[in-house]
């Protein structure tokens, strides 16, 4: 979803001023943050971030942190749903009212995001399996297209010695922010759960980072690439399937990103909803809820209304500005949250060790 949040566009603006080094720094920083957080949440099986904070911090500290995290989740979903409707309106049906696209998307995400965590998890898995083959095919097409210029990519890669910029590093680390889902979905992990194949995090993150940055440069050149706001949509529209029943790759691209946008906004609505619910005094975390509580519908309906309010205020330039600052703020929040989580893990392990019987062995994690 970094494409819908203008991450490639931000990097392209700094392509001569440290974007390449920013990518390399983001791969190291993002991988470290993701792996550290995955390890931290493994120490608290069947617990989400709200329960962890409530258990180890006083209410005067835990409630503001939970509420601020919820606002971060909610705003990310609003930015994506707006960017998606703008993209669909420009490249799919320019004559259609963009608020109709927004209404359809918001209603789908309102229904999906208000489900239980277990249902959302299953939906994410199914949707990922549906769009992964098409997404991999598009990436394969971008690297084998005869119009792509590898020389233009090599020219930009030559600027690797320029120092990184904070804006580009903050934007590029969003590629590694998938671990944030564990703030809620860690409730579904049983005791003894261990995240396997963590070496794939830097590998996949680096692959997508270089794809999303260098491929548009290969199609549009080192100078012309910064003339487009919806960079990857234009890049997909530059490719054709010579022997395909769908000639323009942009239609496959929009199909994939319709699914991915639904996944992302459904996920952000659900996580923000759970965070806001955790601010209530009598809240009890539940992985499965049947029937769906009315509070879920109400909170997600508020998110949908805020999406319409943002759409009425925003335009392409305002949305790009807001998204850029959101990416910077998210990066700072992730670093702060990682430090807080590490401190909590240290205190929890120390408390467990002290409580172990004398002469015995404290089982406080591996």
UniProtKB/TrEMBL annotation:
<feature type="transmembrane region" description="Helical">
    <location>
        <begin position="203"/>
        <end position="225"/>
    </location>
</feature>
<protein>
    <submittedName>
        <fullName>Uncharacterized protein</fullName>
    </submittedName>
</protein>
<feature type="transmembrane region" description="Helical">
    <location>
        <begin position="245"/>
        <end position="265"/>
    </location>
</feature>
<keyword id="KW-0472">Membrane</keyword>
<feature type="transmembrane region" description="Helical">
    <location>
        <begin position="296"/>
        <end position="313"/>
    </location>
</feature>
<feature type="transmembrane region" description="Helical">
    <location>
        <begin position="96"/>
        <end position="114"/>
    </location>
</feature>
<feature type="transmembrane region" description="Helical">
    <location>
        <begin position="61"/>
        <end position="84"/>
    </location>
</feature>
<feature type="transmembrane region" description="Helical">
    <location>
        <begin position="20"/>
        <end position="40"/>
    </location>
</feature>
<feature type="transmembrane region" description="Helical">
    <location>
        <begin position="325"/>
        <end position="348"/>
    </location>
</feature>
<keyword id="KW-0812">Transmembrane</keyword>
<keyword id="KW-1133">Transmembrane helix</keyword>
<feature type="transmembrane region" description="Helical">
    <location>
        <begin position="126"/>
        <end position="144"/>
    </location>
</feature>
């Amino acid at each position: 979803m970094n494409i819908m949040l203008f991450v490639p566009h931000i990097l392209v603006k700094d392509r001569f001023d440290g974007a390449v080094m920013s990518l390399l720094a983001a791969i190291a920083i993002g991988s470290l943050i993701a792996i550290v957080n995955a390890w931290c949440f493994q120490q608290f099986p069947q617990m989400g971030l709200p329960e962890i904070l409530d258990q180890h911090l006083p209410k005067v500290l835990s409630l503001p942190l939970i509420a601020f995290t919820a606002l971060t989740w909610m705003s990310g979903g609003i930015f994506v749903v707006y960017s998606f409707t703008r993209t669909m309106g420009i490249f799919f049906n320019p004559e259609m009212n963009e608020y109709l696209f927004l209404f359809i998307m918001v209603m789908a995400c309102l229904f999906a995001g208000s489900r239980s965590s277990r249902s959302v998890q299953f939906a994410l898995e199914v949707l990922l399996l549906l769009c992964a083959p098409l997404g991999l095919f598009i990436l394969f097409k971008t690297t084998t297209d005869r119009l792509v210029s590898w020389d233009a990519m090599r020219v930009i890669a030559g600027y690797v010695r320029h120092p990184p910029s904070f804006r580009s590093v903050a934007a590029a680390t969003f590629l590694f922010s998938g671990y944030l889902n564990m703030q809620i979905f860690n409730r579904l992990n049983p005791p003894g759960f261990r995240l396997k194949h963590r070496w794939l995090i830097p590998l996949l993150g680096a692959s997508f980072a270089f794809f999303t940055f260098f491929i548009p440069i290969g199609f549009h050149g080192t100078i012309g690439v910064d003339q487009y706001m919806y960079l990857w949509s234009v890049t997909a529209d530059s490719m054709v399937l010579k022997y395909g029943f769908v000639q323009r790759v942009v239609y496959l691209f929009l199909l994939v990103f319709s699914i991915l946008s639904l996944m992302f906004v459904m996920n952000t609505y659900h996580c923000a909803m759970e965070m806001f619910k955790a601010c209530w005094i009598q809240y009890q975390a539940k992985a499965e809820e049947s029937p769906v509580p009315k509070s879920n519908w109400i909170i997600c309906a508020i998110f949908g209304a805020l999406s319409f309010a943002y759409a009425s205020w925003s335009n392409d330039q305002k949305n790009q500005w807001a998204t850029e600052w959101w990416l910077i703020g998210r990066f700072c929040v992730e670093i702060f949250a990682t430090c807080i989580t590490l401190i909590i893990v240290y205190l929890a392990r120390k408390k467990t060790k002290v409580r172990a019987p004398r002469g015995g062995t404290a089982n406080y994690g591996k």
